[in-house]
Specification:
By secondary structure, the chain is of the alpha+beta class. It contains twelve helices and 20 strands. The protein folds into two domains: 300 residues, FAD/NAD(P)-binding domain (3-Layer(bba) Sandwich), CATH 3.50.50.60; 99 residues, no CATH class. The strands form six sheets. Strands 1, 2, 6, 7, 8, 9 and 20 form a seven-stranded mixed sheet that branches. A four-stranded antiparallel sheet has the order 12-13-11-14, covered by helices on one side. Strands 3-5-4 form a three-stranded antiparallel sheet.
């Protein structure tokens, strides 16, 4: 048998100041922030559009506001620029969360795709779609000097002075040798969820159904033996589109999202559950009698995969004592929201509906230079992660990481050595909320 030829080393394609791996909420905020701060930025995204989970799975930003009767906004800067622009254009609205996790901003996912893309292009971010970072180029330091990108044209090397891993799963950090904890290795792991929409709904009647009534109907459906509903709660909410309700109800557990075989099985199971929950709604929920299932999420929603070990690890005590830090680059008031393997969800609130800080050090991985992380792969324990993973905070982390990357390039210093006082000043000047004293301003 003839041996397969060995491919040549990937050809160098281009060099930029900052590469952003992943075009989700964190990655887009990072790319726009870095470009606005003066860096030459290239964003690598595996789909043909940006937004990640925000445009593929979910239609509501959480984390922008504290829970409680007197809600306060805790996120500003680029994230709020995006949310407020959608609201002003009639593509989004604020609504109370079904469980009291704070006011959410529900939006039209297609409008968000277009807005992210427009803001990136206006900032002169180079967008590379249909491509994935599959390896890294390392120096002896060890430091990351670039990424190897796979596309339909083959492998290419992109040289960069700083790389921001906004993949959500810490794919680049793992390739670079950063230590991490994989979800479920040392205890609980968040479940996965396939979201879906119901069209042709009598929304005037459907929106009158409150959470206790929905759960009572679920309990009756399960007791009848005619429905397989693994999660005995969940939510259905209004959308900007007439006659359309969005559902977050399915639960797929025991999955390692970094294992493609397990993730494939999860995709299939998530869609099976969506069909069953849609049947339940149509059969038993008021206003859904003539509805149809539509708008299955592009992929199953992954809440956690890898969490890197960084210069600081945010933990449960930090959240539940509303701790502040000298290097805070964002604030969070979201509760610990643990979608565990059981039939319900565990909620624990920050006392007094206060906020805690997210340290810059949580974005700085151990062991590797020239690399930052942003979004749900930050350095945090399971409990802290179950609070800080909201999209409002992921975007805020992205803005901080992108700004830090550009500042480091301009000053020829490592991200680890950034003057956090200067970084915080730049973030504040851009409208970001980095201190508790500015929450709700």
């Amino acid at each position: 048998m003839t041996a397969m030829p060995i491919r040549d080393s990937p050809a160098a394609w281009k060099a930029v100041d900052v590469v952003i791996a992943g075009g989700g909420s964190a990655g887009m905020a990072a790319a726009i922030a870095a470009a606005r701060t003066g860096a030459a930025v290239l964003l690598v995204e595996r789909y043909g559009f940006v937004g990640g989970i925000s445009t593929q799975v979910l239609d509501t930003f959480y984390g922008f506001f504290t829970p409680g009767e007197h809600s306060r906004r805790v996120v500003g800067g680029i994230p709020w620029e995006v949310a407020s622009s959608l609201i002003e254009n009639g593509d989004a609205f604020e609504r109370p969360n079904s469980y009291g996790a704070g006011t959410g901003v529900t939006y039209d996912q297609d409008a968000l795709k277009l807005l992210w893309e427009r803001l990136a292009l206006e900032a002169e971010v180079q967008l590379l779609y249909h491509a994935s970072c599959v390896d890294v180029v390392m120096s002896e330091e060890p430091g990351i000097e670039g990424v190897i990108v796979q596309s339909r044209s083959g492998l290419r090397t992109i040289q960069a002075k700083v790389v921001v891993d906004a993949t959500g799963d810490a794919d680049v950090a793992a390739l670079a040798g950063v230590p991490f904890e994989k979800a479920g290795e040392a205890g609980d792991a968040q479940s996965l969820t396939t979201t879906f929409k119901m069209i042709n709904v009598d929304t005037a009647r459907a929106r009158q159904m409150k959470q206790p009534e929905l759960q009572s109907l679920m309990a009756a459906a399960i007791a009848s033996g005619n429905y397989d509903l693994p999660r005995r709660e969940g939510s259905v909410h209004v959308t900007p589109m007439a006659g359309v309700m969005a559902a977050n109800m399915t639960r797929v557990t025991g999955i390692d999202p970094t294992d493609p075989e397990q993730l494939s099985a999860a995709e299939i199971e998530g869609r099976r559950q969506a069909v069953e929950y849609a049947r339940f709604l149509r059969d038993m929920a008021p206003g859904y009698e003539r509805s149809r299932l539509s708008g299955l999420s592009h992929q199953i929603g992954v809440r956690e995969a890898r969490r890197v070990y960084g210069e600081y690890r945010l933990d449960r005590d930090d959240v539940l004592t509303a701790r502040q830090f000298d290097d805070s680059i964002a604030q969070c008031g979201a509760p610990i929201e643990a979608h565990h393997a059981g039939v319900d969800t565990r909620w624990e609130y920050v006392p007094g509906f206060r906020t805690y800080g997210i340290p810059y050090r949580c974005l700085v991985p151990l062991s590797v230079e020239g690399l930052l992380v942003a979004g749900r792969c930050l350095s945090a324990t399971f409990d802290a992660h179950a609070s800080v993973r909201s999209m409002g905070q992921c975007m805020a982390m992205g803005q901080a990481a992108g700004t830090a990357a550009a500042l480091g390039v301009a000053a020829c210093i490592r991200p680890r050595d950034i003057d956090t006082g200067h970084l915080r000043g730049r973030l504040i000047a851009s409208g970001a909320i980095v201190d508790a004293k500015h929450v709700g301003d």
